[in-house]
Structure formats: structure tokens, C-alpha cells
């Protein structure tokens, strides 16, 4: 059976999620083998929390990167993309326009380059260099690609604590995780966010949610959808 375009990328996302969840499960088993209240347990609580964050950040960036890879492979023009995604191709133009004082030069550049970019393959920013993946930052990246961010928003409070706790560990502070149940709350929030990103990207590729429904619609009108 011939592999579909979306399956190629979906399999990469699933494989990455699988190995990360396997590693977290191994770390959790080591934690459960320690004595409650022991120094060893405290160490594994910190280790587990740090790795929960690492896999949360690593996977979300990986999945979004895979989505970018797929969009690049499709070589679609901005005029054929949903507006939130198409906008990315115009970020450099926007930055250049801010530096033009002359109205005639401003509109000349705007009209000529905007039209040209509409009919050339879109380019996209990647999240590769993003650090400290606060939930608001993750939501902004999801929205940039017209992906649902509601699950991340629902876990915002716990994800905020996860990122903050990881940062304290990374900066050498003697952070303690209260107990295993608190760690589980961090793990559940991270897992829900990771799965939401995975499902969102895979669904977008399978259902072609990146594409405009019709070229008859104007870009300006489409921006309201």
C-alpha cells in the first residue's frame, strides 16, 4: 500500500512521542522503587521533573518542526494558505516597511513585494531555537500555524509551574518536589499538551487544514475566518 503524504509525517511524530514516553516511564519506575521520604526519592523527583520538561519542550518543538517540513514540501503559495500561516511569509516585508518613511516608497514596496510573495512558495519560521517553552509561548506558536491551542490553555497554570520549576533546577537551586502526586500533576499536564500538539499537527495534515478553501475569497476576507 502506498504511504500517504500525511502518514509520512505522522509516523515521525508518533515515533518521537513513543521514545519520549518510554524514557519517562523508565524514570518513573526508578522513582517508584525508592523509599518514600528518602534522599534517593527526592533526587528522582527532581530528575523526573527536569526530564518531563525536557520532553515536553523537545517534543512540541519537534512536532511543529515536522509540520514546517511538511508545509515546505507542499511548496504552497501564501495565497493558497490559511491566513495565519500565510502571514509568516510577510514578516520580513513587515519589518522592512517599518523603516521606510516616504509614503511613496512605502506603498511601492508594499504593493510590488506583497503581490510577488503571494505567488511564490511561502516560507516559515521554525521553533528550533525556542527555549523556556511557557504555555503562552507554545499557544502563540500553535496559533501561528492555525492549530488549536485550547488544551494548552487549559493546562496553563500547571505548565507555568513546570517551566518555572525546571528553570530553578537548571540554575542550581535546591528545588524540592513535594511528593509523587505533585510530580504526576506536572507529568499529566505535559502529556496532555504533547498529545494535543501531536493530534493537532497530524489532523491538520490529514484534513489539509492549512489550505484555503477557495481562491475566489480575497486574502483580506479570509483573514476573518
Outline of this structure?
This protein is mainly alpha-helical and 225 residues long.
Which properties best describe this structure?
10 helices; mainly alpha; disordered C terminus; 225 residues; elongated
Description:
The protein is mainly α and 225 residues long. The protein has one domain (5-222). Helices cover 68% and strands 0% of the residues. It contains ten helices and no strands. It has helices spanning 5-32, 39-74, 83-86, 91-97, 103-118, 135-144, 150-154, 156-170, 180-207, 219-222. Helix 1 (5-32) packs antiparallel against helix 9. The longest helix is centred in the first third of the chain and has 36 residues, at 39-74. The two termini are 36 Å apart.
Percent helix, as a range, is: 55-70%
Number of helices: 10
Q: Could you list the spans in which at least 5 consecutive residues all have pLDDT below 50?
A: 221-225
SS strand fraction? under 5%
Question: Whole-Å distance between the termini?
Answer: 36 Å
Average pLDDT rating: 89
Query: Can you count the beta strands?
Result: 0
How would a textbook summarize the main sheet? Answer: none
Spell the H/E element sequence. HHHHHHHHHH
Rg over alpha carbons = 21 Å
User: What number of domains?
Assistant: 1
Structural class: mainly alpha
Q: What is the 3D form?
A: elongated
Amino acid at each position: 500500500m502506498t504511504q500517504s503524504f500525511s502518514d509520512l509525517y505522522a509516523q515521525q511524530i508518533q515515533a518521537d512521542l513513543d521514545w519520549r514516553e518510554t524514557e519517562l516511564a523508565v524514570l518513573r519506575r526508578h522513582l517508584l522503587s525508592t523509599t518514600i521520604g528518602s534522599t534517593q526519592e527526592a533526587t528522582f523527583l527532581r530528575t523526573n521533573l527536569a526530564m518531563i520538561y525536557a520532553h515536553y519542550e523537545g517534543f512540541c518543538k519537534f512536532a511543529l518542526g515536522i509540520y514546517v517540513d511538511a508545509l515546505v514540501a507542499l511548496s504552497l503559495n501564501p495565497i493558497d494558505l490559511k491566513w495565519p500561516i500565510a502571514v509568516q511569509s510577510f514578516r520580513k516585508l513587515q519589518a522592512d516597511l517599518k523603516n521606510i518613511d516616504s509614503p511613496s516608497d512605502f506603498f511601492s514596496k508594499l504593493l510590488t513585494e506583497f503581490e510577488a510573495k503571494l505567488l511564490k512558495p511561502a516560507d516559515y519560521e521554525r521553533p528550533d531555537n525556542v527555549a523556556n517553552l511557557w504555555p503562552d509561548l507554545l499557544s502563540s506558536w500553535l496559533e501561528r500555524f492555525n492549530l488549536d491551542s485550547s488544551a494548552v490553555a487549559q493546562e496553563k497554570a500547571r505548565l507555568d509551574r513546570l517551566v518555572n520549576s525546571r528553570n530553578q533546577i537548571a540554575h542550581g537551586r535546591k528545588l524540592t518536589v513535594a511528593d509523587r502526586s505533585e510530580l504526576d500533576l506536572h507529568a499529566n499536564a505535559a502529556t496532555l499538551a504533547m498529545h494535543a500538539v501531536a493530534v493537532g499537527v497530524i489532523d491538520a495534515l490529514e484534513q489539509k487544514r492549512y489550505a484555503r478553501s477557495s481562491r475566489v475569497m480575497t486574502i483580506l476576507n479570509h483573514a476573518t475566518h
